[in-house]
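Journal club side-thread
Mid-discussion, someone asked how the predicted structure for our own chain would compare to the paper's figures. Pasting it here so we can look after the session.
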Amino acid sequence: MQEKLHEECGVFGIYDNDNLDVVTSTYLALYALQHRGQESCGIAVNDDGVIRSYRDLGLVTDVFKPQVLEKLGSGKMAIGHCLYGTAESDKRENAQPMTIRHVKGQMAIANNGVVLNAYELRQKLELQGAIFHSTSDAELIAHMITRERLTASSIEEAICNAMDKLYGTYSMLVMSPKKLIGVRDPLGMRPLSIGKCENSYVLASETAALDSMGAHFVRDVKPGEIVIIDENGLRSIEKHCGKKSHLCVFEFVYFARPDSVIEGTSVHLARQKMGEFLAKEHPVEADLVMGVPDSGNDAALGYANASGIPYGIGLIKNKYIGRTFILNTQKQRENAVRIKLNAIADIVRGKRLVLVDDSIVRGTTSARIVRMLREAGAKEVHMRISSPPFRYPCYFGTDIDSPERLIANNMTIPEIGRKIGVDSLGFLSLQNIVKVAEHSDCQFCTGCFSGEYPLNVENAGKVSKFDRKISENND
């Protein structure tokens, strides 16, 4: 069980009309999306209908050494994927993009999201003789599309027909011999952007990935839209469009990079707005406002601006340490927190601090940070959280699914404050968190805070007995 929430993955695709190096462009984009998934990654390249791919466990820089990139060669199109894996999915066979050969040719698929009716669909396919090599929804979607392709006149028609049977969240890329296709689920719960670089098109989970290879943002893919890019340019199918977007609000709280723009709103400015709301909801007399790097910095700046309390940097983050929660023992995780963060004693000594972070899951890391600041001489520590208390499971791609492990389910806010050792604790209200994307007209999924979900989650998370045994063995 980790201390921070983590999104499942990021996707990127490019269709070249300008003699670009699609492999290098995809590599750079995945590097820009590394924060969305650090368990595995992969790239698939389309060279005149022949798809070459490589995927493995590890970070982008570890997996794609120069010799690997060279072997991928060149092509007209490429798609890439980076995955954050859970205990059930951190196997090489679950890495994406997944490539398959079927009667109509090759296909590669990269998906971000969760198919809620995956168990039923997979069981039906297996009873018809389908063979699965992974537990990934991407492989299930590939089966659904290829079966529809047997009778459909085009790959996009097959995808459209498959969407009628898929229930859940997905922002996915499909690469056929001649087309690059982007698809977003009808509620648009996961982001997907369209960019352009001269005459070439790109698709990405975040606009920061477009910036990484010199593309400019065109627009977001609409909820339910199928975007087709081929030699004739860009066109779309909007059969499944029309529903109001329910983007995951945690894209703005934590998942997305601050330099990205989602649904027309700067993530950096949205987080500043969270801090401004926090200052109005939970004012306090203090000498300095500081963020827990990096995710709390933007909200801390907003709190400082709204409160008039000076903003400062009191914690330094080591950029070269991995995620603390993947370490095996509690003692290792405790030591890693000190390696990852260190207080600047001359800044915090004798000060009344407002410490801003994006969320509290279990509270263990928060407690250690507070203890660190007090040991460095902080006079008072008032913690402010730029999201509501996290009380409910997420079924749509965030990897925490056990309410009993969440501190907000076991303690009141004052009790949490005493547990982590702060002088006061305040969370952003549900009422205000949905107001942070002021330039967007989309609604938000806030199920992790409210327990109210935009989709029926009754059968979410159901797996076969074989997959369950694998999970139990991993535990």
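Post-session note: The longest strand covers residues 105-115.
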